[in-house]
């Protein structure tokens, strides 16, 4: 199973927007750019909402059948480990091996020294095509990187082999995720991590490192865009080099997690990918539910009442909802609108505050982040919320599909 050059991690909390999302990818295909869909949903989301991995497979299959999509599509077991991978075994053919919890934990010293001994040929300056400056690998960096990541790579190997034993090596795509760590990986560290994955025999087709800066949920990148652009370009060059050097899959590419709405990064990413003629896997699923709320608000009547109610209940559970997402949100409570204020808003006012349009004076990134992490509230509403999604499907789908195509696909693809 071979992942195409450009792929997008889509999906949604409540499994209702598959057709709208796939419709956006079909618009890109009609414009001459193939982006294959990868429906994804994490174990945490399933637990909160009460769904199962097979529900994601069913949503993907229904959307593909309804719209007549005639290219590949995949279902991702998102951020799994040995403790929960079996839950996804039947329904998934794309597995994101999350080993962030193993980074920083040292492997036995003799194994670290063994890895370093095998790769002393990397020491020195490494000239990579497409980069103006060489990468420098010294003995200290080699030892430190092995100490930081070798055990994580070994854990990824255990997960990969477990899946391969159950499904067969050719029946799934493997992604390795190290993005949910405290510190970003440098391009030099990425090179050595890829060497470790090769030693483990993992034919990774995408890898998700942690980049410099903050990738907060549902809002734009926080950090130095020029620094990110340089780092991203170096990472692409490292992957191109590592594929041949370590005999990794020829289609190995970068994966950008929490890629939703990182609008300021899309242009430098697109430029680097064009210069190197390389692909990308971009995960954008998380903001779909915010487009649902915008669609509900714009529908007026019961839809608007429901959107207001979600915010009211979320504000009453502020600490509870924020706690799991603390590393990836920056919400200033003093800049959140009061419940009473939101209750007085029209549908347009609610939508304008929530829609990610930094040029609008109505946009409130604190309001947006708060609602981003509040899907648990909607899940607990049960049929009331799900029935509203069905009732106002037209308006919601217009927002979901339009947002994905106009604000994500077009700038990434350079359309």
Describe this structure in words.
- The protein is of the alpha/beta class and 415 residues long.
- It folds into 2 domains: 6-287 and 406-413, TIM Barrel, CATH 3.20.20; 290-402, no CATH class.
- The protein contains 17 helices and 10 strands.
- It has helices spanning 18-30, 43-49, 53-67, 109-118, 139-167, 187-199, 225-245, 263-276, 288-299, 301-315, 318-322, 339-344, 347-354, 365-372, 375-381, 383-391, 393-413; strands spanning 6-10, 36-42, 74-80, 94-98, 124-126, 135-137, 173-177, 206-208, 253-256, 280-283.
- The strands form 2 sheets. An 8-stranded parallel beta barrel has the order 1-2-3-4-7-8-9-10, surrounded by 5 helices.
- The two termini are 28 Å apart.
Provide key terms for this protein.
2 domains; single chain; TIM Barrel; 17 helices; globular; 415 residues; 11% strand; alpha/beta; two-stranded antiparallel sheet
Measured between the Cα atoms of the first and last residue, the distance is 28 Å
Helicity level: 40-55%
Counting structural domains, the number is: 2
Low-pLDDT stretches: none
Number of strands: 10
| CATH class division of the largest domain | Alpha Beta
Q: Write the H/E string, N to C.
A: EHEHHEEHEEHEHEHEHEHHHHHHHHH
Main β-sheet, spatial strand arrangement? 1-2-3-4-7-8-9-10
CATH architecture of the largest domain: Alpha-Beta Barrel
In angstroms, what is the radius of gyration? Answer: 22 Å
Kindly name the structural category.
alpha/beta
The CATH topology name of the largest domain reads TIM Barrel
């Amino acid at each position: 199973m071979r992942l195409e050059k450009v792929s997008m991690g889509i999906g949604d909390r409540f499994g209702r927007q598959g057709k709208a999302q796939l419709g956006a990818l079909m618009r890109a295909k009609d414009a001459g750019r193939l982006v294959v869909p990868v429906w994804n949903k994490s174990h945490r989301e399933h637990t909160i909402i009460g769904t199962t991995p097979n529900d994601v497979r069913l949503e993907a299959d229904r959307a593909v059948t309804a719209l007549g999509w005639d290219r590949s599509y995949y279902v991702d077991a998102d951020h799994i480990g040995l403790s929960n991978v079996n839950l996804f075994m039947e329904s998934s053919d794309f597995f994101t091996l999350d080993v962030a919890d193993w980074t920083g934990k040292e492997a036995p010293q003799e194994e670290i020294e063994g890895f370093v001994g095998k790769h002393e040929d990397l020491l020195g300056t490494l000239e990579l095509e497409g980069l103006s400056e060489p990468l420098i690998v010294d003995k200290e960096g080699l030892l430190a990187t092995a100490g930081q990541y070798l055990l994580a790579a070994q854990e990824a190997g255990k997960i990969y082999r477990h899946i391969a034993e159950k499904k067969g090596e050719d029946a799934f795509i493997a992604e390795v995720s190290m993005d949910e760590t405290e510190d970003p990986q440098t391009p030099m560290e990425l090179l050595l991590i890829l060497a470790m994955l090769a030693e483990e025999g993992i034919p990774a087709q995408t890898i998700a490192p942690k980049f410099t800066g903050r990738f907060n949920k549902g809002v734009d990148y926080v950090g130095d865009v020029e620094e990110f652009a340089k780092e991203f370009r170096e990472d692409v060059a490292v992957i191109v080099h590592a594929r041949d050097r370590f005999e990794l899959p020829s289609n190995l590419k970068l994966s950008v997690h929490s890629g939703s709405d990182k609008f300021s990064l899309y242009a430098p990413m697109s430029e680097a990918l064009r210069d190197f003629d390389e692909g990308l896997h971009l995960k954008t699923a998380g903001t779909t539910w915010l487009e649902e709320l915008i669609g509900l608000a714009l529908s007026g009547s019961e839809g608007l009442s429901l959107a207001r109610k979600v915010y009211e209940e979320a504000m009453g559970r502020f600490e509870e909802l924020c706690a799991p997402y603390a590393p990836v949100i920056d919400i200033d409570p003093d800049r959140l609108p009061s419940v009473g204020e939101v209750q007085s808003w029209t549908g347009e006012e609610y939508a304008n505050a929530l829609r990610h349009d930094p040029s609008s004076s109505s946009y409130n990134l604190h309001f947006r982040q708060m609602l981003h992490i509040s899907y648990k509230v909607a899940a607990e509403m049960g049929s009331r919320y799900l029935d509203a999604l069905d009732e106002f499907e037209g308006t919601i789908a217009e927002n979901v599909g339009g947002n994905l195509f106009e604000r994500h696909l077009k700038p990434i693809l350079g359309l």
